């Protein structure tokens, strides 16, 4: 199986980087091909240019795309599964990942004539400082799922799964340490069931 990972975190010294490494190693050990776009490492441009905006606003599929966007779209169309690994910043993904969607989800690719491959699965592995209970109480739980699965992956994959690896704030070392091993095991199990398009076992916090 071909797996495309979109990874977004500004620091290599992070639990999110450990999640990435664990996931990629497990998938490769299981015989899958994995390609990673580390958005900070490749210095992916966050901002949509005026020309890109006008292309989308005018639904102009013939307007030439920038090469960095074409490369990301090609990675998607070579894949069976797309995986997003990122920390939660103010209920959202980091700005660089939001900008990735703004620029890569183009007219004629993600919508319009839809040249984007219909994927077997999309997976979101999100690292959150807050606990799931907090995210639920304050409505952030639903917001995160609605934006990523309801909007960005809407009808673009057969199966969509989101896992919140919660309680990982450095402000609460005891909770972070207690959750560390649990979350890493969840990541391994997600990797081990990635070629299962039916209902997986209950793995951690599966939204």
Sum up the structure in keywords:
5 strands, disordered C terminus, Rossmann fold, alpha/beta
Main pleated-sheet profile: 5 strands, parallel
Radius of gyration: 17 Å
> Quick one: how many beta strands?
5
Oligomer: single chain
Query: At the fourth CATH level, what is the homologous superfamily?
Result: Flavodoxin domain
CATH topology: Rossmann fold
Label the CATH architecture. 3-Layer(aba) Sandwich
Overall 3D form:
globular
- CATH class assignment: Alpha Beta
Unreliable spans = 198-207
Mean pLDDT: 93
| Separate helix tally | 7
Report the portion of residues in β strands: 15-25%
SS class: alpha/beta
Q: How many domains would you count in the coordinates? A: 1
**How far is the N terminus from the C terminus?**
24 Å
Description:
The chain is of the alpha/beta class and 207 residues long. It has a single domain, classed as Rossmann fold (3-Layer(aba) Sandwich). The chain is 40% helix and 18% strand. It has seven helices and five strands; from the N terminus they run βαβααβαβααβα. A five-stranded parallel β-sheet has the order 2-1-3-4-5, with helices on both faces.
